[in-house]
């Protein structure tokens, strides 16, 4: 669709704003002669822009004083994130917390401590997990403080050690803590303790051991050489004397057989004794009959 000068083509020709020769939607790209374009609008020499508080001369559009939040010869530019919302005619201002730069258009890094940075260049002190001058670099996930690069870590999270804090401390280290450079436990408990709660109390023992200090061994026939914290376990085939599996089925059977034999012998002896007593009594009765 072709439209005359001063109109924009849409479904139909729509007139531009007053004094505008060529426009887009709500924005003028070229004004008619005698008018000045400021922020997409056309002004004559007697009409000041809405953003201008005081004109330099009544017959020009150059502003001496802009309204708060604006700057430039025609007050055509908006101030950045300025303290109190004001800036100089060149756009410079003290910045709101969290911003930096001459026009306060730069935002402090999320890695900056308390969200604050230098108002001129954005440099700041880093919070845990970040590094470099503007705290834009992130440390290794197990590192609390690093510098120069993510792998150059100064302080590891508890439970890790190494230059980049990627190595876990041994479970036997008390509270899971160890030396950052060597990995040696700061404190430890029994060497048979897989995980400890205090220097004298183990939470878990290595396989084959049990007890508060993991100083007792599981039964010789515990299945998979594993027992609970009280030494109880399931037995391997051939052993059924739970809960400690310290006697074989053969030993149990032999013991039972021996006990039965002894009981049988005792019963036989008692029977013979009773019979003998009965015979003696009979003979005595025969003598005095």
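Sequence proposed for the structure above (289 residues):
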């Amino acid at each position: 669709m072709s439209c005359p000068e001063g109109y924009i083509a849409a479904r139909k020709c729509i007139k531009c704003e007053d004094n505008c020769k060529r426009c887009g939607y709500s924005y003028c790209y070229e004004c008619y002669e005698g008018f000045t374009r400021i922020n997409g609008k056309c002004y004559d020499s007697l009409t000041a822009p809405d953003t201008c508080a005081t004109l330099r001369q009544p017959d020009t559009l150059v502003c001496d004083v802009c309204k708060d939040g604006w700057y430039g010869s025609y007050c055509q530019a908006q101030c950045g994130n300025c303290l109190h919302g004001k800036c100089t005619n060149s756009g410079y201002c003290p910045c709101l917390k969290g911003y930096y730069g001459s026009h306060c258009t730069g935002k402090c890094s999320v890695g900056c401590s308390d969200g604050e940075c230098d108002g001129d260049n954005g440099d700041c002190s880093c919070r845990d997990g970040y590094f470099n001058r503007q705290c834009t670099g992130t440390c290794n996930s197990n590192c609390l403080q690093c510098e120069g690069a993510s792998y150059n870590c100064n302080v590891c999270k508890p439970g890790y050690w190494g230059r980049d804090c990627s190595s876990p401390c041994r479970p036997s280290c008390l509270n899971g803590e160890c030396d950052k450079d060597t990995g040696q436990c700061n404190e430890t408990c029994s060497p048979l303790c897989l995980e400890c709660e205090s220097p004298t109390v183990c939470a878990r023992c290595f396989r084959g051991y049990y007890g508060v200090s993991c100083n007792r061994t599981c039964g010789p026939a515990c299945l998979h050489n594993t027992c609970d914290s009280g030494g109880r376990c399931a037995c391997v085939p051939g052993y059924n004397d739970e809960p400690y599996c310290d006697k074989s089925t053969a030993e149990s059977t032999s013991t039972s057989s021996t006990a039965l034999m002894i009981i049988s012998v005792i019963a036989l002896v008692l029977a013979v004794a009773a019979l003998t007593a009965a015979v003696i009594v009979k003979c005595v009765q025969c003598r005095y009959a």
